Amino acid sequence: MNTNIENISSTRRKIEIGFDAKEVSDEKASTLADFVKNAKIQGFRPGKAPVAMVEKSYAKDIAEYTNRGLSQKAVAELNKIKDFDLFAIVDMKDEDADGGKKIIFMADIYPSFELPADLKATVELPEVKVTDEEVQNGVNYYLNQRAAYNEVDREVRKGDFVRIGYNGQVDGKDISEILPDMPMFGRQSSTWEEAGNEAAPGVQGIVQGIIGMNKGDKKTVSHEFPKEFATPELAGKKADYEVEVFEVREKSLPEIDEEFLKAFELKTKEELEERIRKDILADKTQHNEVMKRQKAIEAVMQGIQIDVPESAVEEEKNIILEDMMMRFMSSGASRADLENSKEALFESAARDAEIRARMKIFLNRVAKANEIKVDNEDMSRLVWQESMRMRIKPDDFIKSLKKDQGKINRMRSEALVQKTINFIAEKADVKAVEETK
User: Fold this and answer.
1) pLDDT at position 208, please?
2) Rounded to whole angstroms, how far apart are CA atoms 238 and 171?
3) b/e burial code for range 182-210 (CB count within 10 A of at least 16 → b)
């Protein structure tokens, strides 16, 4: 057996592992002997049929198993090479060579780079505190959840909820004909708008224009779409909308009384405010933990150049796409919606894949250098997290995993990544800074 290595790039190698004629002959003889032991030839007991007859009857299978045996030996030899750390076998083929056999691998390898001398980073995080304004916003959120909407016979005021119908035109042509799949910007026979809401996702010309109208009124309002508007058919265009008001409702917030507080199993407004304060504090603390992990990794990787193997980027892209599509479909989107969004999903996955692949390679090197291992507790935690994310029972998720070794390997790799991130984050020094709004 002989080995030849050719550098294709900094992260790709072409490896040829050759077997001479005697090695191929020996492998074939070993394979043939196994077939003789188990071959079923009419008129002979297993293991008693003539060798020549077995060889002739099973010629195709013997050749296939001989090649498989040589390939397995070549893979074992490939894994022994000390010149590099193997990342993935990208392609494998075999060629006959002067009575022998040559197994040719195209393989990606882990890039060579130096880890920083110190994995300790200083990260800036917002000071964790809760303002009275944030608490009041929380109270308002619960009040709005339980608000009553009473029909009124007066002109529309800011904050009213108004049922309207409208039809828009650009350059004298109905927008509903130009963009039939986007009724929000074209025609609505009956829809609700919060008058004057500057954060409303619809057409602001309508949202603001209905203020001052009465039930039964009709009016033409205009809206200028910005030049950078995501829909090119409307970008930079002025649209005219014929609007009709069908119903006006005034929002009425409830009192914070005994009945209101009963829903929270509380007795006083102060108890409600304290609960909201604690919830906001917990959310901010959790957010800071996530940001600490992210910033610590970014800091220790600063300035490190890592050549990422092509197969690593491709693998990450597939993982990202699978996750995107799962979330997309679970949101209630149809296959048609998915098809329409496919190009955008692919672009987004391609952008993120190289960044994630580079980070994972760095973290794997850190894990190896610091002897970080994945244990059963790490896997159990990840299984529970994944089952919760997918909204299935952990036992059912485990059953599905047993049928997919590839997914188990990916989860083990992910568990190692998360454990290594924690290892780096725990070393970080946190500098509290004033929270920006």
Assistant:
1) 97
2) 8
3) eeebbbbeeeebbbbeeeeebbbbbbbbb
Q: Give the angle subtended at the CA of 290 by the CAs of 287 and 292, to the nearest 5°.
A: 105
CA 319/CA 349 separation, integer angstroms: 9
pLDDT for 283 beyond 90: yes
pLDDT at 331: 67
Alpha-carbon gap, residue 5 to 7, rounded angstroms: 7
Question: 88, 109 in Cβ contact below 8 A?
Answer: no
Contact yes or no for 39/119 (Cβ under 8 A)? no
pLDDT digits (tens, 9 = 90+) for 122-142: 999 999 999 999 999 999 999
Q: Which of 140, 158, 141, 159 is nearest to 149 (CA)?
A: 159
H, E, C per residue of the chain = CEEEEEEEECCEEEEEEEECHHHHHHHHHHHHHHHHHHCCCCCCCCCCCCHHHHHHHCHHHHHHHHHHHHHHHHHHHHHHCCCCCEEEEEEEEEEEECCEEEEEEEEEECCCCCCCCCCCCEEEEECCCCCHHHHHHHHHHHHHHCCEEEECCCCCCCCCEEEEEEEEEECCEEHHHHCCCCHHHCEEEEEEEECCCCCCCCCHHHHHHCCCCCCCCEEEEEEECCCCCCCCCCCCCEEEEEEEEEEEEEEECCCCCHHHHHCCCCCCHHHHHHHHHHHHHHHHHHHHHHHHHHHHHHHHHCCCCCCCCHHHHHHHHHHHHHHHHHHHHHCCCCHHHHHHHHHHHHHHHHHHHHHHHHHHHHHHHHHHHCCCCCCHHHHHHHHHHHHHHHCCCHHHHHHHHCCCHHHHHHHHHHHHHHHHHHHHHHHCEEEEECCCC
The share of the chain scoring above pLDDT 90, in percent, equals 71
pLDDT in tens, 9-48: 999 999 999 999 999 999 999 999 999 888 888 888 877 8
Q: Which residue has the tokens 């496919």?
A: 342
pLDDT at residue 185 above 90?
yes
- Who has greater pLDDT, 378 or 222? 222
Count CB neighbours of 75 within 10 A.
Answer: 16
